[in-house]
Write a structure and sequence with these properties.
There is one protein chain. By secondary structure, this protein is an alpha+beta fold. About 50% of the residues lie in helices and about 25% in strands. It has 5 helices and 4 strands; from the N terminus they run H-H-H-E-E-H-E-H-E. The protein has helices spanning about 1-50, 55-75, 80-95, 130-140, 165-170, and strands at about 100-110, 115-130, 150-155, 175-185. Strands 1-2-4-3 form a 4-stranded antiparallel sheet. The radius of gyration is 39 Å and the shape is rod-shaped.
């Protein structure tokens, strides 16, 4: 009987130990679940704050890609130096100003915003009235080639009169020294 009582005590002790281990594991899992529930609630709250993508996202992406290709194609320039100069001189003739090319520089490669471009520069002197010069500059910047920019512009009144006076500004000739740059993709397509 002693053995039996001893066996029952050992069995009860083993059951208590097993129950204690199982109970401790259950409490541990319950605490982890509470922690996971809190993390899930935080993540759900964060997800609510993230805006939904617009319904037309695919269309906007396609449009942006088309615009990018169009912008890249603007830099595909197949004109020679002479053709560029002749275009500038034709614009001058159309606007009634006298344009004289002073100097040109050979095509050079320059990096702008991590992109390499071929750049052709020309300096010209233009003489005409103020309104003619304004029209010339506007047509120059909005005409061909599309990648033409005016890097510098120095305007001098030939008679020392102020360009702020409207009567003088519209009739007296003025001279402008203009430095122009034309950008294109480099010859290697880079």
């Amino acid at each position: 009987m002693k053995t039996r009582n001893l066996l029952i005590i050992i069995l009860v002790a083993a059951l208590l130990v097993a129950y204690g281990v199982i109970g401790a594991d259950y409490l541990k899992q319950r605490n982890q679940r509470d922690g996971y529930d809190a993390q899930i609630a935080e993540a759900a709250a964060a997800l609510i704050l993230i805006p939904q993508p617009p319904a037309d996202l695919e269309e906007r992406l396609a449009s942006a890609q088309d615009s990018l290709e169009e912008a890249k194609n603007v830099f595909m320039l197949d004109a020679t130096n002479i053709e560029i100069i002749n275009t500038i001189l034709d614009t001058a003739n159309q606007t009634g100003v006298k344009a004289i090319p002073l100097s040109t520089q050979p095509w050079v490669q320059e990096s702008v915003a991590n992109q390499t471009y071929a750049v052709f520069r020309i300096e010209i002197e233009v003489t005409g009235t103020y309104p003619q010069l304004v029209i010339f500059l506007k047509q120059l910047e909005n005409g061909e080639p599309k990648t033409l920019i005016i890097e510098s512009l120095v305007v001098v009144s030939l008679h020392g009169a102020s360009l702020l006076e409207s009567s003088v500004r519209n009739t007296l000739p003025i001279t402008a020294n203009i430095r122009i740059a034309v950008y294109a993709n480099p010859p290697d397509g880079g």
